[in-house]
Amino acid sequence: MPNQVLSTFPLGMPWQTFDPFLFSVHHLDRFPAGNEALGPAEGTAGRRLGQDFGGKDGWNMYHGQTVPGFPYHPHKGFETITVVERGFADHTDSLGATGRFGGGDVQWMTAGKGVLHSEMFPLLNPEGDNTMELFQIWLNLPRANKLVPPNYQMLWAEDIPIARFPGVEVKVIAGEVDGHAAPAPPPHSWAADPNNHLAVWLLRLNAGAEWTLPAAPADLNRTLYFFRGEQLSVAGQAISPYHGVRVASDAALPLVAGDTEVSLLLLQARPIGEPVAQHGPFVMNTQEEIALAFAEYRKTQFGGWPWPSEEYVHPREKGRFALYPDGREEVR
């Protein structure tokens, strides 16, 4: 039988990904108590504001000046999938959409022909820790869909299925596990065609737990990211902590946790197989298209910024919600 583990690699910053995935990153910040502006009450002395990825004291301001996060910036030609397992994120964009999500919610945004948005991490607890854990995944769009209208939608935690097995939980953000199907992805996403077999799963195995990753069709890119835990075996091969594992997509793979709980992210899909030209937050097929994208952004600002500040956040007392460009609102 051919080797079911194709390769392993250390998880850097960002994580290595494979077509159609462009980027994946895991943020875990143990933020302190929040002040009235929802930034860190202990202040930001000694940090490179606007470019703080140093991990000082176990947390980062990222590009935020007052509140941690990513003030407004453009995207074009791909999608972002933002999974906030702990803490909260405030989203605003140039379409007039906004929201607050967290505690297991997922935001899926199709940038398409271009959008400005911000992702800020308000520190809502004024008296204690504000731990935040999130994953952001960039998913490419095929040439035919790179210029579709932007789309923003929420997958609320209550609506995301969790497949449970003895000692194992699988959170199904995209795809299907044992009859547990994820909410529908955006209509122009590579994930919208079931023939692409796109899957985004978060797996948790208790200490000593075993589970067999079911086989999928051949010729998919399938990668496991071992981001928490000490011991993991994949198809009988010991995997070092904080490593990625490329595996054969058409093989059923036994996963065995060691003496501690193990957490994994799975990314899987049929490759798009088109040329990728990327410059920062713009992803097209050619360098000429990248140049046109920058020219359009300079001219239109993708609709401009309708919010009071570049790192706008909602009041502390605001709960989880999503306001869409058409005025429709969801409240959780």
UniProtKB/TrEMBL annotation:
Membrane-spanning residues: none
Pfam families cross-referenced by the UniProt entry: Pirin, Pirin_C
Superkingdom of the organism of origin: Bacteria
SUPFAM superfamilies hit by this protein: RmlC-like cupins
Limits of the Pirin N-terminal domain: 63-139
InterPro entries attached to this UniProt entry: Pirin, Pirin_C_dom, Pirin_N_dom, RmlC-like_jellyroll, RmlC_Cupin_sf
Domain Pirin C-terminal, residue spans: 203-303
Family: Belongs to the pirin family.
PANTHER family the UniProt entry points to: PIRIN, PIRIN-RELATED
Annotated protein name in UniProt: Pirin family protein
Species whose genome carries this gene: Neolewinella lacunae
Lineage start: Bacteria, Pseudomonadati, Bacteroidota, Saprospiria, Saprospirales
